[in-house]
Structure formats: structure tokens, C-alpha cells
Specification:
- The protein is about 70% helix and about 0% strand.
- By secondary structure, the protein is mainly α.
- The protein folds into 2 domains: about 200 residues, Clc chloride channel; about 190 residues, Clc chloride channel (Orthogonal Bundle).
- The longest helix has about 45 residues.
């Protein structure tokens, strides 16, 4: 190998390591600020529940901001998937502040939404700016989008392994022409995930911790129970995805976009504040944590699906993943009344399995489960996530995600897919 080739390899390697470190630091810092801000507005809402009545006006603010300044980035996560599949132009940086503002407003006034979408969009928008700085081509832009998603996911949940795999896996189902990644993309995805994760750690922002203290022995009976949880989680994921798309289509019939979250906000405020459904506002983390030790009513997961689908469909901002955790954990918790397995294990299985079904990412969700709950329940987590993946239909929460391979063939003739 000539010295010129060695020099080129060294410079290329250095360039991508530098890009990963910069994206990790910037995305991690953005996520840290977002998490601190989110906790502040959440606590304010909890201590001033009257503010939920102002949700329509919060919706109007979001509607106006995207209508006048954010029309090019209103697709959110789907824009990232589309730009990965068919690169056209650099994602505008304004996606980051707009989704941050919209999500904080949504949570301040009591909308039911998550946080993953915000962190991923901020990470994607930040990462794609390096296209201009380093004069990258379209194939290199694809790597940047992987890095942005990886950094955003890893930093907001504190799960670097799952974040790196999620970015690769979710885009694997969006790649129409090639079903493989370069080895370099895989390595860089892990590198940026850890850079973003340690940046959040540096800012001393804490993540929610969960535990499954009791793990039963692996037996035919426990495996059958786990398969049942996986099937029900897959159906719940299907219902969640369909609900979000249904409400989005319904609200799209309102021709003036800013009115969509305003009208949706009126209905949500009456339902949440007027009928006492405040537990379904925001992320719902306290309910998720409680579900690991106390059985939830059987209808809690259904109401979270309804409120989150309606909130996001109306045009409020946030993510779907934490609400999916809520749906799964409360479903598993409720199943503890009829399935003789530890409640924490059932809640944990639902937690990751519903997420797996809704995003078509069983590998990332299995890894995430082990990162959050430990390696001991790993076999149960893997079974539940895989079964949920195959039983959730071919349509997930991301419209631009293209399902191919074995799952696609399995569901081609299934009427619900």
C-alpha cells in the first residue's frame, strides 16, 4: 500500500471520527437541554393542572410556527427516512428548534406525547449540517442521517447500544435499493451513540431506571406465556400505529393547518381536565414506573393509545416511543392478573415488545430491554420482541418506513396490514 493511500485512509478515518464526536457532543447537549426543559414544564403542569385548559392555545402556537416557518420540516421523523431513501437536499437546521419548541409546548399544556421524535429530529438536523461543512456527497449524507438518529435516540433514553442499532435497523426497513450497510456505518453509529450518551452524562442529566427483581426459570410454560404477551403487544402496536395515522388523516381534512391542533386541543382539554384523565398527559413516566409493581386497570393502555394518537394526529409535537412504553408496560402490568409471571417482568416485556412492533426494530428493542433491565430476562425479552414484530402488521408508526423481507411476505395478504 502506497503512502498516498495510507494518508487518504488516515484522513478519511480522522474526518469521520471528528464528525462523530462533534455530532455526539452537539446532539447530546441538545438532548440534555431538552430533557431538563421537559422535566421543568412537566413539573409545572403537574403543580398547575389548570394550565391544561390552555392546550388549544398551545396548539395554535405550534400550528402557526410550523405553518409559517416549518412547512419544509413538518414531516418530522418521516423526513429523515425519506432523505435517507432518496437524498435531495440538506435538512434545514430549523427542524431542531421548531420541534423542541413544539414538544415543550405540547407537554407544558398536557398533550399526550413522547420525546424520542424530538431528540431524533434534533440529532438528524444537526448531523445533516455537516454535509455542507465537509462537502459530503449523497452516499455520505446517508451516513450522517444514521449518525443523527443514533445520537438522538441514545442520548434521550440513555441506551447507547440500542440507539446505535435502532438507527441502523429502522433505516434498514427504509432502504429500497440496498439491504445492507457498510461496516464503517455500523462502527460510526456505535461511536456517535456513545459520544452522545457520555455528553448527557457529562451534563449530569439522569435517566429513569427500571428493574425486574424476579426472573422465573425458562420452561415451556413461561415461554408460552411470553409468546402470548408478544402477540398482544404486537396487536397493541398495530392499534397504536393505526390510531395515529387515522387521526392524522382525519385532521388533515381541516384545510387551515394551524386550526388542527387548536380544535384538537379543545377536545383534549375537555377530555383530560374535564373528565380527570390527567394521568394520560405528557410522558406518563410515573405510571410506567408504578406498573412494574402494581397492576394497572385493563383499559389504561387503550386510553393511552387513544390520547396519544389523537394528540399527534392533531398536529402536536413529541414522539411516540415513551407512550409506546406506557402502553406496553400498563398492558403487561394488567396481564399479571391472569398470567402467573412476575408483574415487573410482564411490564418489562410489554415495555419493549410494543415498541418493537410499532417500529419494526426487534433487535434494537431486545438490546434496549437488556440495557434497561439487565441480561437475566434477555431470552424472554427476545421472544416477546420477535413475536410482537411479526404480529404487528406491516404498517408502523413511521409512514415512510418500508417493510420488506419475511414480514412483508407474511402480511401481503393479511387484511389488517
Amino acid at each position: 500500500m502506497t503512502s498516498q493511500k495510507l494518508k487518504k485512509i488516515f484522513l478519511t478515518t480522522f474526518k469521520w471520527i471528528l464528525i462523530c464526536v462533534l455530532i455526539g457532543i452537539l446532539s447530546g447537549s441538545a438532548s440534555a437541554f431538552f430533557l431538563v426543559s421537559l422535566e421543568f414544564v412537566t413539573q409545572f403542569r403537574i403543580h398547575h393542572e389548570w394550565i391544561i385548559w390552555l392546550l388549544p392555545f398551545g396548539g395554535l402556537l405550534i400550528g402557526f410556527s410550523y405553518y409559517y416557518w416549518g412547512e419544509s420540516v413538518v414531516k418530522g421523523n418521516n423526513l429523515l427516512l425519506e432523505e435517507y431513501e432518496n437524498p435531495k437536499k440538506v435538512i434545514p437546521f430549523k427542524m431542531a428548534p421548531l420541534v423542541l419548541f413544539g414538544t415543550l409546548i405540547t407537554h407544558l399544556f398536557g398533550g399526550s406525547a413522547g420525546r424520542e421524535g424530538t431528540a431524533v429530529q434534533m440529532g438528524g438536523a444537526i448531523a445533516d449540517q455537516f454535509t455542507r461543512i465537509f462537502k459530503l456527497d449523497n452516499s455520505e449524507r446517508k451516513i450522517l442521517i444514521i449518525l443523527g438518529i443514533s445520537a438522538g435516540f441514545a442520548s434521550v433514553f440513555g441506551t447507547p447500544l440500542a440507539g446505535a442499532i435502532f438507527a441502523l435497523e429502522v433505516l434498514y426497513f427504509s432502504e429500497n435499493k440496498s439491504r445492507s450497510f457498510r461496516t464503517s456505518s455500523i462502527i460510526l453509529s456505535f461511536l456517535v451513540a456513545y459520544a452522545a450518551y457520555f455528553t448527557v452524562e457529562f451534563w449530569q442529566v439522569k435517566h429513569t431506571h427500571y428493574s425486574i427483581p424476579e426472573i422465573p426459570e425458562i420452561s415451556l410454560q413461561t415461554i408460552v406465556y411470553t409468546i402470548i404477551v408478544g402477540i398482544l403487544s404486537g396487536f397493541s402496536a398495530l392499534l397504536f400505529s393505526r390510531s395515529t395515522h387515522f387521526w392524522g388523516s382525519l385532521f388533515s381534512k381541516i384545510k387551515y393547518p394551524p386550526l388542527r391542533p387548536f380544535i384538537g386541543g379543545i377536545i383534549l382539554a375537555i377530555a383530560i381536565a374535564g373528565f380527570g384523565f390527567t394521568k394520560f398527559s405528557g410522558l406518563g413516566v410515573p405510571v410506567i414506573v408504578d406498573s412494574f409493581s402494581n397492576a394497572n386497570p385493563w383499559y389504561d393502555f387503550l386510553l393511552k393509545i387513544l390520547f396519544t394518537g389523537f394528540t399527534l394526529g392533531a398536529g402536536f409535537k413529541g414522539g411516540e416511543v415513551t407512550p409506546l412504553f406506557f402502553v406496553g408496560a400498563t398492558l403487561g402490568s394488567a396481564l399479571s392478573l391472569i398470567i402467573p409471571m412476575p408483574i415487573a417482568l410482564l411490564a418489562g416485556l410489554g415495555f419493549v415488545a410494543v415498541f418493537s412492533g410499532a417500529t419494526h426494530t426487534p433487535i434494537a428493542c431486545t438490546v434496549m430491554g437488556m440495557e434497561l433491565f439487565g441480561f437475566q430476562p434477555g431470552i424472554f425479552i427476545a421472544i416477546a420482541c420477535t413475536i410482537a414484530y411479526f404480529s404487528s402488521g406491516s404498517v408502523g408508526i413511521y409512514k415512510s418506513q418500508i417493510v420488506k423481507g419475511a414480514k412483508f411476505k407474511l402480511y401481503q395478504k393479511w387484511p389488517l396490514s
